[in-house]
Specification:
Helices cover 37% and strands 15% of the residues. The strands form four sheets. A seven-stranded antiparallel sheet has the order 1-18-17-13-12-9-8. The N and C termini lie far apart (55 Å). It has 571 residues and is α+β, with helices and mostly antiparallel strands. The structure holds 6-diazenyl-5-OXO-L-norleucine.
Length: 571
């Protein structure tokens, strides 16, 4: 016994000494203390420090959440070229301080010349990379129209004030982070191959942290947008440059496509989870429906008792995800083209029936799970930012070019990157896209149709008041990352930063495997899961969640994903 005490005391002194010499932040982290700053007047959480600063400046100037969102969207198009964009699209979920909600769909559309079999060879096989790294990979961009629409409905400050920071960042340049330098270096070969001539992203030698990235063409493009609004992008010199690029590269987008592009206000879909109201994105996102299905599937189980990322919790969630993603493959698509059975997919009796063949004895093989059937139904590198203002208005926006840097093709002279969102359509029934997602008729390619998305910008209410603003990039893993972040807070009492930083796992029906971040599952859990037939594979990072929580005291607390350069600022 004395020996044991001696040993314990020496362990204790080593521990205390270590704490003493550690920086304060590290100590707090070790001890599980979250010292996240809290703010009263508003917050911006987004994927690049300079863009977060732009958003905060707008809030401080008296702009509201939508003003800040417009400014952040454009600032990210300069500072986060892999995902921030004007050549792509996205979704916004909005909730006013007085409780009205709305959503804006500024998702890209298939050009008029697109066709169902456009990526198939004469034998009917998908031509590799055609929907990804060619001019034909681009849908008609929606971001600029989306920002114009959002601003004209809800904005308070002048449009030009919201665009100017992007012009300044493009013209004067900004310091690149280590991560951006690495991203640019990694893609240099592709940029060179796909863009004959010069681009700002190619440099003699390698990019380094702290280098200044200047994008003068993009500054000029933004001047057009600042001065002419929608017409500055969909008409005039920028449109001419985009059409010339299409002609050069055998792309499909025409002047008429640009003129006809309009974003759409859609009624938010909503659901409940243990008294919390979930306000989220309807189709053409699959994310909102899938999120509500997942929450319903797990609601009656004691997740809190089982514990975060513990065996039973993981198994239940994986089995729910398997079923939800199977449904996604068959029933989700653009509601303007395909009758998505929203009500049937969300009926409590349907969700219960879907989970009926879940067994604690063994994993349900994905071959056994098919998309569900309902009686009476006739058959069909992204970035997220969360903003709240002093009046409690909240904007949750996810925007994308699809892959990192989209198609990696620049519009010559205009300086912006083209999306490769066409890959989110199903090129051929059952053939997986770049995220391994399969689809069929509901998500087949058609002119003017929007490709199905997983983007899940979401706002959560508690007792009729704002509770959380949340979303993430991550392709197919978006839905499960948003889901896990929400339950991390509601079930596992995690603070916002911890809920965002917590390790995640994911299952999407096909392939039949649990994808987990390194460290997400402890070894005992892994052994138990494997014994029940679950195959586990590991991935570097799943999602980059940026979220804001309103505390009981009415303060805002942010969660900026440590997986990226994500930044939270408030005042
Ligand atoms: O809309 C979608 O679901 C995809 N285009 C999102 C892509 C994405 O999140 C890539 N980011 N890591």
């Amino acid at each position: 016994m004395p020996n044991f005490n001696k040993k314990r005391n020496s362990y204790l002194s080593v521990f205390l000494l270590t704490l003493f010499f550690m920086p304060v932040g590290c100590v707090q982290k070790r001890l599980g203390i979250d010292n996240s700053p809290q703010y009263r007047n508003g917050m911006v959480v987004c994927a690049y420090p300079d863009a977060a600063q732009v958003g905060l400046d707008i809030l401080k100037k008296g702009g509201n959440a939508v003003d800040a969102a417009v400014a952040v969207q454009f600032a990210l198009a300069i500072t986060l070229p892999e995902a921030g964009n004007i050549g792509g699209g996205g979704f916004m979920v909005y909730r006013s301080g007085t409780g009205e909600s709305n959503t804006l769909d500024f998702r890209e559309k298939g050009p008029a010349k697109a066709s169902t079999d456009m990526y198939l060879d004469p034998e009917g096989n998908v031509i590799p990379d055609m929907s990804l790294y060619t001019h034909k990979a681009s849908g008609v961009p929606g971001s600029v129209d989306g920002m114009v629409q959002a601003h004209s409905k809800y904005g308070k400050l002048k449009w030009a004030e919201l665009v100017q920071p992007a012009i300044d960042l493009a013209r004067n340049g900004f310091k690149i982070t280590k991560r951006l330098a690495a991203d640019l270096n990694r893609n240099a070969g592709q940029f060179k191959k796909l863009n004959p001539g010069k681009t700002y992203f190619i440099k003699e030698g390698e990019w380094k942290e702290g280098d200044i990235l200047v994008q003068e063409d993009l500054a000029k493009t933004f001047e057009q947008i600042r001065d002419k609004g929608r017409e500055g992008f969909y008409d005039g010199v920028v449109a001419d440059q985009l059409i010339a690029e299409m002609k050069n590269g055998d792309g499909l987008i025409s002047k008429v496509d640009l003129k006809n592009y309009h974003s759409v206000w859609r009624k938010a879909i909503t659901g409940n989870y243990k008294g919390y109201k979930i306000i989220t994105m309807p189709p053409p996102s699959s994310g909102g429906i899938a999120l509500l299905q997942l929450l319903q599937s797990v609601e009656k189980y004691p997740l809190k008792r089982w514990g975060h990322n513990q065996d039973s919790t993981v198994r239940l969630i994986v089995e729910a995800e398997r079923r939800v993603y199977a449904d996604r493959s068959k029933y989700l698509g653009d509601p303007d083209f395909y009758k998505v059975p929203v009500d049937s997919l969300l009926k409590p009796a349907y969700i219960t029936a879907r989970m009926n063949n879940f067994s604690w004895n063994a994993a349900t093989p994905s071959t056994v799970i098919q998309p569900g059937t309902f009686v009476g139904y006739e058959s069909d590198q992204t970035t997220h930012y969360s903003i709240v203002d002093r009046d409690g208005n909240a904007a949750s926006i996810t925007t994308t070019l699809n892959d990192s840097f989209g198609s990696k093709i620049f519009v010559k002279g205009a300086g912006f990157l083209l999306n490769n969102e066409m890959d989110d359509f199903s090129s051929k029934p059952g053939v997986p896209n770049m995220y391994g997602l399969v689809g069929g008729k509901a998500n087949s390619i058609q002119p003017g149709k929007r490709m199905l998305s997983s983007m899940t910008p979401t706002i959560v209410e508690k007792d009729g008041k704002l509770f959380m603003v949340v979303g993430t990039p991550g392709g197919s893993t978006i839905i499960t990352s948003v889901f896990q972040t929400i339950i991390n807070v509601i079930e596992f009492n995690q603070r916002m930063q911890q809920a965002v930083a917590s390790k995640r796992f994911h299952h999407q029906w096909l392939p039949d495997e649990v994808m987990a971040e390194t460290g997400a599952l402890d070894s005992a859990t892994v052994i138990k899961l494997q014994a029940k037939g679950y195959k586990i594979t590991y991935r570097g990072g799943i999602g980059r969640v940026d979220a804001i929580l309103k505390t009981q005291q009415g303060n805002y607390e942010g969660g900026a994903d440590p997986r990226g350069d994500d930044t939270k600022l408030g005042w």
